[in-house]
Amino acid sequence: MSFKIKILKKINFNNPILIEGLPGIGNVGKITLDYIVDSLNAQAFLEIYSHKFPNSVFVNEDNLIDLPRITFYYKKIKEKEFIFLGGDVQPVDEIGSYEFCHEVLKLFKKFNGKKIITLAGIGLPKIPNNPKVYATGNSKEIMKFFNDKRINNEIFGTVGPIIGVTGLLIGLAKEYEIDAICLLSQTFGHPNYLGIKGARELLKVLDSKFKFDLDFGSLEKEIKEIEKEIKNKTQEITGFTQVKPNQEVSYIG
Predict the structure, then answer these.
(1) Integer CA distances (angstroms), 71 to 141, 188, 212, 226, in order
(2) What is the mean pLDDT, run by run of 10 residues, along the chain of 253 residues?
(3) What domains appear along the chain, each with residue ranges and CATH number?
(4) Using alpha carbons only, what angle is made at residue 31 by residues 207 and 64, rounded to the nearest 5 degrees?
(5) What does the pLDDT read at residue 112?
(6) 181-212 core/surface letters (b: 16 or more CB in 10 A; e: else)
(7) Among positive and negative, which fits the CA dihedral 184, 68, 42, 8?
(8) pLDDT of res. 250
(9) DSSP strand pairing (80-87 vs 17-21)
């Protein structure tokens, strides 16, 4: 079994748009996708399980075990149909990533899909105050489709390879005659950092384009809480580094 597809609900699609957001740099794509799915109350209709995913399990809110999976969600908004592709994992190696992307593209082709949007972060050495959004795609048509003044299309030399499902989907989509674009937002490149600010900028672009009518209130509150936590940690670290030689240091551990 390379991939096990579990259909939760059958849907007759009409030219849906696929938006992908999986774990990556700053988890920008995942945060963005999860926020949209929760805000729109999108309905899960398909799950993919695979030996290509990490050899681990997750403990859910009921204190029970879940196998790693990637989920497809559906929502129709203002006569447009959307498929949201999200989850807590990506395939663990290069071959698995290619095979998974081909599986997704075959499914999307069956769903009569024509456009794919993937979401990602650009890792920076410092936390950006005002993250910029960049875009790259597999056709000039899809780049024109996202004609937004907030998006910088001059991406050459700004980012290196776009790794994993997020990059491969837009690259391989051309083989399936599907237009695809990747939206990337700047974030802090630390593995433990949550790129909520970067996600907010992607949400603004998507909300403006597709009229999702998202409520940014809870997101802004979360940003302030994280910024406060970072500030407190920074002050603690600064305090330790400024200790004089004759001062005692109190610590546990």
Answers:
(1) 28, 27, 20, 28
(2) 91 96 93 94 97 92 94 95 96 95 97 96 91 94 87 82 94 96 93 88 95 85 68 52 41 38
(3) 3-217 (3.40.50.10900)
(4) 130
(5) 95
(6) bbbbbbbbbeeebbbbbbbbbbbbbbbebbeb
(7) positive
(8) 32
(9) parallel
Q: What is the pLDDT of residue 232?
A: 64
Q: Return the residue matching tokens 């995913």.
A: 53
* Residue 99, C-beta contacts closer than 8 angstroms, at least 6 positions apart: 2, 3, 52, 91
Secondary structure of residue 43 in the 3-state scheme: strand
- Output the six-digit token pair for 159: 């980012």
Cβ-contact 195, 26 below 8 angstroms? yes
CB 37 within 8 A of CB 212: no
Integer Cα distance of 72 and 86 in angstroms: 7
Residue length of the chain: 253
Residue that the structure tokens 């780049």 belong to? 143
* Per-residue model confidence (pLDDT) at position 204: 94
